[in-house]
Amino acid sequence: MELIRWNPMRDMLGMNRFMDDFFLPAQNFNRKDAFWMWNPKVDIYDEDDHIVLKAELPGVDKEGIEVDVKDRVLTLKGERVSDNKIEEDNYFRRERSYGKFERRFTLPANVDTENIKATYKDGLLKIEILKPVDSKPKQITVQ
């Protein structure tokens, strides 16, 4: 189990944003800063010999996605660019978020960071991380 430092301000800000989005979604509709505050939805699950991370990145170009690993932290970065051809006055409703995003995930100890595979198809990024090989106890014969 990983220990994560509790940051009360981060948690309170996240709860405030959650409550605003749930109870007052129209209030956030025209906020300029709302268009850079988006994070892709991510599923992480265990599969036979690897861990799979799937991120929803609709509208993001493959060339604009960065995945890197350093010190057991996998970082996912990119940007979804707005369609600037449409004038702001012509919108009836604008709900999609645009801008840069960055997500970080702490990997388990001893994962093989040299053999991480990433594929991108139909707006879905799939990252496969080989799990560490559990060392089996060695039987020692007593003589």
Topology, pairings included?
Layout: H1 8-23, E1 42-47, E2 50-56, E3 66-70, E4 73-80, E5 99-106, E6 112-121, E7 124-130
Antiparallel strand pairs: 1-2, 2-7, 3-4, 4-5, 6-7
Description:
The structure is a single chain. The protein has a domain at 38-130: Immunoglobulin-like, CATH 2.60.40. With 143 residues, the protein is mainly beta. A four-stranded antiparallel β-sheet has the order 1-2-7-6, with no helix packed on it. A three-stranded antiparallel β-sheet has the order 3-4-5, with no helix packed on it. A hairpin with a 2-residue loop joins β1 (42-47) and β2. The chain has one helix spanning 8-23; strands at residues 42-47, 50-56, 66-70, 73-80, 99-106, 112-121, 124-130. It is built from one helix and seven strands, in the order αβββββββ. The two termini are 38 Å apart. The model is unreliable at 24-36 (pLDDT under 50).
